[in-house]
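Archive maintenance. Older records in this collection stored only the sequence; we are now back-filling the structure field for every entry so that each record is complete. The fields below show one back-filled record exactly as it appears after the update. Entries are processed alphabetically, and RNA polymerase-associated protein RapA is next in the queue.

ARCHIVE ENTRY
Title: RNA polymerase-associated protein RapA
Organism field: Actinomadura rubteroloni
Length field: 994
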Amino acid sequence: MLLEELKPGLRIEGLIPAEALTIIAVQRHGTDALELTYKTTTGSLGQQVVFRKDESRLRIARSGGRPFDAPASEFKLAAEAQRITLAGLFDPMIAVATSDVRPLPHQIRAVYGELLPRTPLRFLLADDPGAGKTIMAGLYVKELILREDVKRCLVVAPGGLVEQWQDELFFKFGLRFDLLTNQLIEAKANLNVFETNPLLIARMDQLSRNERLQAQLGESEWDLVIVDEAHRMGAHYFGGKLEKTKRFQLGESLGRITRHLLLMTATPHPGKEEDFQLFLTLLDKDRFEGRSKTTADTSGIMRRMIKEDLLTFEGRKLFPERIAETVPYKLTRLEYDLYEQVTAYVREGMNRAERIGGKRRNTVGFALTVLQRRLASSPEAIYKSLVRRSKRLEQKRHEILAGTYREAEPPIDLEGLDTDDFSAEEIEKVEDELLDAATVAQTVDEFDAELRELTELVRVAEQVRNLGTDRKWTELSAILRDNALTRDANDSPRKLIIFTEHRDTLAYLTARIGSLTGRPDAVKAIHGGVHRSERRQITEEFTNNPECQFLVATDAAGEGLNLQAAHLMVNYDLPWNPNRIEQRFGRIHRIGQQEICRLWNLVASNTREGEVFTRLLLKIEEQRKAYGGKVFDVLGEAFTGTPLRALLMDAIQYGERPDVKARMHRVIDQSVGDGLKDLLDERALVSDHFTEADFAALDASMRNAHTRRLQPHYIEAAFKAAFTRLGGRIVQRERRHYEITNVPAHIRAGKRAPIAARYGRVTFDLSSVPADGPAHADVLALGHPLHDAVMDETLRRFGGALNAGTVLLSPELAEPHLLVGMIENVADATGASIARRFGYAYIDSNGTVTPAESAPHLVLDAAPDTPEVSAAKNLPWLADAEDRATSWIISHRQPEYLAAVRSRRSTELARTRQLVTERLATERDRLLTDAALAGRKERLGDKPRESSDSLRGKAIELDHRLRKRLELLDQQASMFAKPPLIVTAALVLPTAQE
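Back-filled structure field:
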């Protein structure tokens, strides 16, 4: 065709191989060349210079560019593979339908009401322990993967939880994540391990402490990063200085390299409002800049639901009641004498450490505190601790004589013990390292004096230990006899968990419980030294073996383990960090728990610490009667001004003084009495609740999702047809279960996830997989590597049929129609896609468009090869039918779609604009005021804490940040609909034409 014939709106072929282009604009350059601007069938724009010599290969595209000559069987096969692959664009809850989970109302609302609508996501999911946050995260990840919004996802979790994350994502969601192990790193020695593994789980401290990994991480980009136990990424103000932990710096780095960021924790508030707001800067630095005294507005950025407010779909309470009971007891005379002597030793050591000051004071104070806690734990623990300490100090005495003595240095910042920055496993390790080594003694004479004192303490401790009259054990054995050594209503043994602070006590209790029951195998133990794989094995045994009845554990088992097989728990030792009480209780008070959860707290009432705990537990019980189990959720936050640890140390050092006692009682009464009430009232304002209207809306959305969902029988039919066409063999074993005897090599080759050569048992419907049946079956659904590989290979081999089109027959139509499948897309001015959907529509000869059912190609028959069918392919109106369909969609469907997306997103953006502007402008103005004051001091010859130039520079930087953020918000608020993308078409004729 001649260059002079090219004009806007014309559809041509020949410029790009196998592609029909629509000309957008023509700019002529002389008589023998012109510049074409065009749009491809995928909707992308391009430009090319065309010369006179190119005329011979250009032609007008016929029939809208589609010859409709593809075999109908290949078209239908590819169309169904395409529909299934794009299921995330029309099935609103595709992850629910294709995952082995039964989500609850609060989980559905979290994923589909809070997380998915926010693009890009910056969010803190802070529901209570046991509410199923991992399930919510798994649904969110799978939903985004199936919607083609996420291809690269990184999960960062504490070391003890990474295998659990891997298992949950695989067994419940079919998502195969790799663990960032040393073996994986070594295998990718010459590559960036983060670039080569798109679905990855990494240990938090592995990343925060390894500079090489941090450098590689900084060079990578992610679609989604999830951080579990994110509260460990803490930062704190000490005086006027901001101290960022390595984990906090890791959090900042992760925020810079990902589009979506989801933080998860059950304890979001560390007790100090300014530290909480520092934590929130990981999500939005502008919104939480500076040190504000006012309570943070977390709307749109955080979701927290309290256990007692969670309901089932039937409106019943999801969690049973939880009851805590204090069990006071008095030490025997010999136990009390030992207590007084060791306490005097600890108190004197603390007083001497106070006089020394500096880091040694903190180190020695910490070590002596651990010794005091072991004294309260058991005769076994204090005896062995005193023996070990004597041996270590004797060794240090020899080091002084040899000139090799070195002061013990804490491996972690001891100030962070009450902020939950460190895991129980880390704290256990630090205690073991420092307990026996930290001392105020520095000379041989000082060591000799302390060793003489320790020798006497060891003698008394050994005497108490050997007598075997342990009052605390007596109380525990009574609880076991009354509650655990009797059978429940179903004649099954009751399971019980006992938490202790120390391994010596753990070993002691394990032996004594074994002797009491006469069944040593009925008792299992977990502490920080138990390897993760063994910890999982013990948990499995305790959960499933009826004869495994008792679990004795340190707080290493209080983090991330699901132990709801038990509903009885004893705090043999009470933790000095009150957050640990809820973490322990949360191991049994979880989703799936059917029994009332009972907790017994053992307290020696005639000790200084016991007096503090007795008062504390009394106040907790008073508040529990008024507020139910909610008091445990906020217990750690109650001690914002004075940590519980500080109260207990004061009790040890000065507990006999009336004024100190009165102050401790006053702090407890204010914190746990009035303080808890205020916290719970405040939580009630920021926590989510379910109303009847919420349940009605949720029920409607679930019904809507069910009607639009991709039903398992569609997946089954499509997979079997495609798999056999590709050379695979699948045979039925029993109803709804199959065996795959051969997976062709070309399906297995080059896939990211491993695919087996055969599968002994597969199914396509989750409901056909028994929850506790012995026969495992792979569920072939979206996300399963074999299923996805078959769909991909089908589209690769037969996808050309979608472009060419085919001819189908319908008994429902009276005249020919064009059937098109299209994707609609809403984007913003940043270029990010905000919302997408996929569907089919019919176009008739008049250009009228009507929506089609979700899979119209499945109910249409192949057209015979007759002259009438061949003639129909050249119907004149087909030439611009797709253009007319596009115009109709743009004018009739997209305005409503765009308005719905814009309405939902604009409210959130407007709120963010307001909060960011208020925070940054306030902080900028404060800096300018401080700069003016500093300038006056400088003119008077005084030296201010910070120069006026420095303060003004910071104010200017904040002003620049504010302008940049507002520009970004303007771009995000500018939303528009992209032209619909027609991805396939078929000519549908009335059946009567046969």
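Update note: The radius of gyration is 34 Å. Residues 278 and 979 are 43 Å apart (CA to CA).
Entry marked complete.
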